[in-house]
Structures are given as C-alpha cells and as structure tokens.
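#onboarding

Welcome to the new folks! Below is a worked example of what a typical request in this channel looks like: someone posts a single protein sequence, and someone else replies with the predicted structure as tokens. Don't worry about understanding the tokens yet, we'll cover that in week two.

Example request:
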Amino acid sequence: MYYACMVALQIRDVPEDVRRTLAEQAARRGQSLQAFLLNLVSDEARRASNLAVLGRFADRTDGSALSAAEMSRSLDEARAERDRR
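Example response:
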C-alpha cells in the first residue's frame, strides 16, 4: 500500500502587492490562498512531467514530419478520394 507524504513549503520575502493579488485571485475562485497556491504548484509540477515525456520523444524519426497544415491537407485529400469512390 502506498502512502503519500505531505510536506510544507514556505516562500519568504513575498512582496505585499504580490500576496494581495494572489489572495484576490483565490477569492475570485472561491478558494483559500493555500488551496489556490497548492493548485498552482501542482499544475507546474504536472507540466514539468508532461514536458519530460514529450522530451523523450523529441528525437524520434518514426512519426510524421508533416506540419499541421500539411497533415490537414493530406487528410482532406484522402477523404475526398474516399468520397469519390
């Protein structure tokens, strides 16, 4: 069984205007400042994990080298050919 360990983080020397802005954003979302900041930190950690996964595939050459526009044109042509049959 896996038990998650929770830790406390502390940020020192936060300017008052920054704290106030973050608190206002949290209030607009109906969250406490702590919940709001935990979501921000969690999202950042998730993005870092996603970038690491994408980085592992960056050098692969077995996929398509087409741009999005070229891929869209290619699909449109293939669909048109299918519909002509």
